[in-house]
Amino acid sequence: MGRKILLVTTDQQRFDTLACNGGALSRTPVVDGLAAEGVRYDRAHPQSVVCMPSRSTILTGQHPTTHGVFMNGVPLPPDAPSVAEVLRTSGYRTALVGKSHFEPYFDPFLRFEENLLSTIGTTPHGGSRRGFEHFETASHGAMGPLHYAQWLVHNHPEALGMYCRAIDDHLQVSAEAGGDTDAPQVKVNPIDRGIYHTDWVADRTIDWLDSLDADDDWFCWMSFPDPHHPWDPPESEVGRIDWREVPLPAGYPEDRSTREAIIDGKPRHWRAWYDGTLVSNYEAPADWVPATLTADQVREVNARNAVEVELIDEALGRVLARVAERGWGDDVDVVFTTDHGELQGDFGLLFKGPYHVDSLMRLPLVWRPAPSSRAGAADGTPAASVVHRPVGLVDLAPTFCAIAGIEPPEWMQGAPLPVDDADAEARGFDKVLTEWDSELFGVDVHLRTMMRDRWVVTAYQPGTSHDGTEGELYDLVDDPLQQVNLWDDPAARPLRNDLVADLWDSQPEARSERLTLEAPV
Amino acid sequence: MTARRGSMRHSIRLRCPAEKVWDLVGAPVRLPEWWEGVESCVVEGDERTILTRSGLPMPERLLTIDPQQRRFQYRITSPLFVEHLSTIDVHDLGDGTCLTVYSVDSEPAVLALVIAGAARAALNNLPEVLGVEECR
Hints:
- The structure holds two protein chains of two kinds.
- Chain A has 15 helices and 16 strands.
- By secondary structure, chain A is an alpha/beta fold.
- Chain A has one domain: Alkaline Phosphatase, subunit A (3-Layer(aba) Sandwich).
- In chain A, helix 7 (197-210) packs parallel to helix 11 (295-325).
- Chain B is of the alpha+beta class.
- The interface between A and B is medium-sized, with 29 and 29 residues.
């Protein structure tokens, strides 16, 4: 019997929303407890700051350039490599419960199998899909053909209209405003907490775990759709945090001219989006102008986001309790992370887009190794550590292989996560890459980013708003909020040249045949 | 996305006479043979109604069926669309191959992307459905 693996992902969660990472809004005792017994990563970055490419990286262990899903709406080919398939063919039972999003949601022809699965149950055709023998899907609300939405249709039709609409009548990301401050994608949701998608994902995970034999080895990806917008947690829970008492984030200068001066120091698409003159992608409402965002709206969004984070923590606690009841407590590795971050008021912005700063790139990542794996440790106590060197989501797949005692396949581009800084240094964890490519209705943006040492450098390639000479360079030590762009600072030119040369030298191998954008998301 | 109206295009080059492709893509009732996700279609005069796999009926008006130019045009008249025009052209390239081009313009823009995405998959089905080779 080997180590079991519980991969817990959330969607669009910032690093600083966990108490163990210094967050002061949410109470997250379960994840904090995992961190206290395991490894907390101070610099975990995604390889893309939007869902489909990032989730494809988690599954394949490859950078977007290599797996080919360069933006939302580009489907991951059904035969793409998968760590779940590696584990399944090594004898692991496998499941994905919750948000998958390897294929587009916008699918009126139901061409994509992930959208068809709810019509056939939870066992994919052929016994598995992408390596998962159990595949049970959910997203941010009650729309569409996914299992959760269909479960609501059949069991709680009264709840269908309670969620915030993700898409408006013009099929754009909804700018519908609500709450006390008329913030975008905030809605009072009267849904019963017990049938909200967070608890549903936990319930379905527990059901799957209960279907297993005690001596099964298993890999379960439990994937919560929250705290991604819309910010519509069950209203019964919203009172946990009074938004009026929420401090403004450090990344949100309340003075408008200060905010705008910071944005004006960055490449021009920042300001263009802020002013509502350019929306380059489908990740934010086209009809919403960030410059209209108020301090109270930032407070309310942050409060609701924090409530959603707490609900996830509590749901995870229920699952871990069930794991313990099954007698697996000492044999389960738990990895907690997310696919990318959220601007959440930083720079006066919400949502996400081609903005490679910590708001979107610095992720919560905690790995609690199975306690049984430490049986040989000197005193048997948990060896809690914090890794400060950079790691990426691309490192998760090889980590799961290592946990299972399997040599990571050559197609995986990362390496098993380090357990401490000494391990990270010895194995060369010194940089992490992130990329952005979007091409939508004549607007294209292309960024390549590297975090190394204390620096984050982003080189721009030619696109609608850029001629390819632009860039961003931030000193994470002296400027942790990334408000001072050093790209054009003559004093930083030698450093910039060195970083940019390393950035281009480090680019991963490109997929031979380019994939195609087939839907907005 | 800044535009309310979207315009997209996909194409495929096949090693076969243009007429062979036209016989399929120019026949309004044969759509389910090559377009994945179209469960059925009914043609009455210049009206065609397709039923998608998701159960969504999509009414269309057939505008052009021109075997000389090998051009097929239609509008989706569903209230989901403010405006829509799709055009299929089959070009004889004169070397034993032909180029089939699917173009779509629509408002809302996102529907152009969705229709074009499905059309691209449909074009990619043509080699197998017709038993011909794709020229890359």
